[in-house]
Specification:
Blueprint (H helix, E strand, L loop, with lengths): L3 E6 L15 H18 L3 H7 L2 E2 L2 E8 L8 E11 L3 E10 L2 E11 L1 E2 L10 H8 L6
Antiparallel strand pairs: 1-4, 2-7, 3-6, 4-5, 5-6
């Protein structure tokens, strides 16, 4: 397994008047990193691909540890891995950092639903296979 690395520059509008990133934006950063990771692995936009496959994948759980402030115009690097794959869900681990300094750590779990019935469905084999390539081995 190797992590996927996502990079972005912090924008002015993501910060408070002191130039520090608003706390809720970290959830957005982590979600965007998971979507970008899936899109890169699939070779096309992940949400569209999942919808075309009849899947809805809402977030079931998210958890974030804020470790250090982040400021306007800094380059945020994010390392994305899969922590767990369940029958109906999968969980990403995301670490955001600038240089050697960890900025935040997040876990985000998605549940797989039928887009028609909104009932849980098993993670499809094609998605499970792709996720397994990103999975952290203990």
């Amino acid at each position: 397994m190797s992590a996927i690395h996502i990079s972005r520059t912090i924008l002015f509008g993501e910060c408070d008047p002191a130039g520090i990133v608003y706390t809720p934006r970290f959830t957005d950063f982590a979600l965007e990193a998971t979507h970008q990771t899936l899109s890169e692995r699939l070779g096309k936009p992940c949400i569209r691909t999942l919808n075309e496959a009849g899947l809805a994948t809402p977030v079931r759980h998210t958890e974030i540890d804020y470790l250090h402030p982040l400021r306007y115009d800094q380059r945020l690097q994010q390392s994305v891995v899969i922590r767990e794959i369940g029958k109906h869900s999968y969980t990403f681990g995301v670490v955001g950092y600038v240089g050697e300094k960890n900025i935040y750590r997040a876990t985000i779990s998605y549940v797989t639903l039928s887009s028609q019935t909104l009932q849980k469905v098993p993670v499809p084999a094609w998605l499970r296979d792709m996720l397994t390539q990103l999975q952290v081995r203990s």
